[in-house]
Write a structure and sequence with these properties.
- There is one protein chain.
- The longest helix has 48 residues.
- The protein is rod-shaped and about 80 Å long.
- By secondary structure, it is mainly α.
- It has one domain.
- 89% of the residues lie in helices and 0% in strands.
- It contains 3 helices and no strands.
Amino acid sequence: MPTNELWLTPLILLPGVALLIMSTSARLHQINSEFHHLFDHPDDHAKIISRHLVQRSAFFRDALVSLYLSVGLFSFGSLIGGVINLWFPELLWMVGGLTISGIVTLVFASAQLVRESFLCTKIIKDHQNRIENLSSVSKSVTFD
């Protein structure tokens, strides 16, 4: 691969990472809104719901930190690659190392987002079961 392409490669990955950051940030903001809703409308299950929200926010935090690290590593890799390409072409392997590090953090962020998705599905199923149990209890109550 020509040296110019090598140090530009990390920059090509940045728009995709930026989209992941935007969507993950929006989902984390949604959790914050759900917490505010719990404060304004507390119910019997607020502790359980808040525990799930804290778990989800931890996954999002880990994913966002990894995504930000990925952006930093890709950007730094391109910066170093440009400098190395001009003055020290024999050290171009460093760009590959930084790019690989950025990809590793991107994979970790993706894994955290997958974990959050599974947790979110579990929470939805728990809510469905709770609603079904409430419905069956209210149907069994008869008024005299």
